[in-house]
Amino acid sequence: MEKINRRSALLAAGAAFAGVVAGTASESEAAAWGPRRFFARPAAEQGQPTPAGLKFNNEDFYTDGKFNEDKAKDAIIALCRYFNYPVFPDLKERLWVSDYGTGKYTELGLACIGIVNHDKDKLGQTFMMQDLYLLPGQMLPEHWHIKGDGIAVKNEGWFIRHGKSFIVGIGDDNLPPEIKIPECHMGGKVEVKHGKWVNAGEYVQLAKIETKHWQMAGPEGCILTEVANLHTNSAVRHNDPGINDHFLNN
Asked: For residue 81, what is the enclosing H or E element?
């Protein structure tokens, strides 16, 4: 049998990891790649019993009408414990949380932690990685990325670690009936409507740079890792004008 050196094995693994580009691959192409899983499936997908689902009340995240970031972070810690995601000592203080000024955090919002956002390495390359946290049924608003601050347009992909998320980008409309856009997002509207449920252990890539995209967590919530080139908030644009103004001014 021909020996396979370590470099060849890594290249082969990298090719498999590339996955199917969301919004661009046909069903036959998706079938050709096969399942893109790298960890064991969640217990719920294996028919095993799971803990009682997480439930949150929107009013609990507001104090005198103002978004309470501390309570939002507590909810993320609860989400992490639910999925047995490691809660390291300074996780809570490093979390960034936002309801994008909507007053509807359980319906639309985001929590994230930056792992690395590297300007340039010795080869002149840039890279970014962050973990994103979405509560059950929570929507990350529709947005896209432009050139900004002298860096290239952001190109990104998402690896689901826990739960699942319906990730949406350009392509033919195929939103399933269970995906309901909250009224706090452009009166319940979005522009791009082509997506797929992405489960734990699966990876998808942005269909095309500078295109709009959004996602919505499944009923248990979702924890995912985003990988990209260098990122800056000033180069993000949101389709909802109110959300866009809030994001760029906070």
From this structure: helix 69-82
- Answer for the pair 71, 60: CB distance below 8 angstroms, yes or no: yes
Query: Measured between alpha carbons, how far apart are the two ends of the chain, in Å?
Result: 60
Instruction: Tell which residue, 227, 229, 232, has the closest CA to residue 161.
Output: 227
Query: For the residues 106-135, what does the mean pLDDT come to?
Result: 90
Are 190 and 239 within 8 A, CB to CB? yes
Identity at 222, one-letter amino acid code: C
Burial of 197 (0-12, 13-18, 19+ CB in 10 A): middle
What number is the average pLDDT over the span 226-244? 95
> Residue 225 belongs to what H/E stretch?
strand 213-228
- Bridge partners, residue 67, by sequence: 62
CA distance 56 to 19: 34
Is residue 153 within 8 A of residue 234, CB to CB? The reply is no
- Residue 52 tokens read as 């009682």
Q: Which pLDDT score, from 0 to 100, does residue 214 have?
A: 98
What residue segments make up the domains of the chain, in order of their start?
6-248
Q: Residues 128-150: pLDDT tens digits?
A: 999 999 999 999 999 999 998 78
Tokens of residue 35, six digits: 């399942």
Look at domain 6-248 and name its CATH class.
mainly beta
Please report the DSSP string for 130-174 in residue order. Answer: EEEEE-TTPEEEEEEE--BTTBPPP-EEEEEEEEEEEEEESSS--
The pair of three-digit structure tokens given for residue 23, joined into one six-digit string: 């919004």
CB 76 within 8 A of CB 131: no
* Alpha-carbon gap, residue 159 to 19, rounded angstroms: 10
Give, in order, the Cα–Cα distances in Å from 156 to each of 69, 131, 152, 207, 221.
27, 13, 12, 9, 21
